Amino acid sequence: MTQPPTEAPASTDFAPEAFLVVPARTFEDLCVGEVFRAPSRTLTDAHAAAFQTVSADNHPVHYDAEWARRHGHSAPVVHGLQVLAFTAPGATLFPHVIGEVFVSFLELSCTFLAEVHSGDTLYPALTITALEPQGDNGVVTTSATIHNQRGELVLSGQHKYLLRRQ
């Protein structure tokens, strides 16, 4: 019986810096209208409990079903910041696309349009809406949206990123 080698031979053809998830692009390669989707995710009580622990937000609207009902909600409401977190660019391929030219995440804003509850499935997306050259850099503006399983827009917002130009 032959034993497998204990160490793989080094390859002269492999370069870690060339090991990319997707080909890197420049600011100039991006196009208004491009969409970067995140995988859909069905929220559970465990997600809400984990976020409550991390955020220290212990308002009863997030975990007390009776309190939520008495105050006009059909069920405990998922934390807004948790919903917003699903627009994180890292949940999409966008940071892989811009990895070599990324400078900083400049700003974000959002409006919560509908409640999200445990059991809802969220569909986040970032869509490039503007590309503004600024000297050696450029600002990419994206709309950030999240729809639920009923096709309702539950969050609408905007992100801005600073990228190096060629």
Short structural summary:
The protein is 16% helix and 33% strand.
Overview of the structural elements:
This protein has helices at residues 45-55, 65-70, 80-85, 94-97; strands at residues 35-37, 41-42, 102-112, 121-134, 137-148, 153-164. It has a single domain (25-164), classed as Hotdog Thioesterase (Thiol Ester Dehydrase, Chain A, Roll). It is flat, with a radius of gyration of 21 Å. Strands 1, 2, 3, 4, 5 and 6 form a 6-stranded antiparallel sheet that branches. The protein has 4 helices and 6 strands. A hairpin with a 4-residue loop joins strand 5 and strand 6. It is 16% helix and 33% strand. 21% of the residues are buried. This is MaoC family dehydratase. Belongs to the enoyl-CoA hydratase/isomerase family. Residues 33-135 form the MaoC-like domain.
SSE layout and pairings?
Elements: E1 35-37, E2 41-42, H1 45-55, H2 65-70, H3 80-85, H4 94-97, E3 102-112, E4 121-134, E5 137-148, E6 153-164
Antiparallel strand pairs: 1-4, 2-4, 3-6, 4-5, 5-6
Written as H for each helix and E for each strand, in order along the chain, the element string is EEHHHHEEEE
Number of helices: 4
| Overall pLDDT level | 93
The secondary-structure class comes to: alpha+beta
Strand content: 25-35%
Largest sheet: 6 strands, antiparallel
Might you state the CATH topology name? Thiol Ester Dehydrase, Chain A
CATH superfamily: Hotdog Thioesterase
What gross morphology would you assign? flat
Output the keywords.
Thiol Ester Dehydrase, Chain A; alpha+beta; HotDog_dom_sf; MaoC family dehydratase; MaoC-like_dom; about 170 residues; 6-stranded antiparallel β-sheet; 4 helices; flat
